[in-house]
Amino acid sequence: MILAYAGMEKHMSILRMSKTLFKNLFHGPYTVLYPIKQKEKYVHTRGKITIDIDDCIFCGMCDRRCPTGAIKVEKGNSAWSIERLQCIQCSYCVEVCPKKCLKMDNQYTSPSNGKVRDEFIKCTNTQSLNE
Q1: What's the pTM value of the predicted model, to 2 decimals?
Q2: Does residue 9 sit in the same domain as residue 71?
Q3: CA distances from 49 to 57, 61, 76, 129 (A)
């Protein structure tokens, strides 16, 4: 009796597996073919950090708060840079910025094979065009 039950269990597991196989075969992919097909973006989707460089005072609060060290601030050169693929979109830098010049955009960084560093330099030229 035990051998008959074991044989029936084996056939039942094959039937269950076949059902799952045919279901997955005709369903199609469960994932989005990114970057060919873009995923829908929601209002509160965390994407990439953007900066309004003219409002930045280069205090370095975002640099110190970044857990991965993706942001670098050079006060002497009035430069701000971010390593895009090192950033984990935690939004700590946006929260700590005293001038609120950092924003979390809902667009993602494009896929890349190498490092992507975006650098922003504040224009400090105060001369007018007529001079």
Answers
A1: 0.65
A2: no
A3: 17, 15, 22, 32
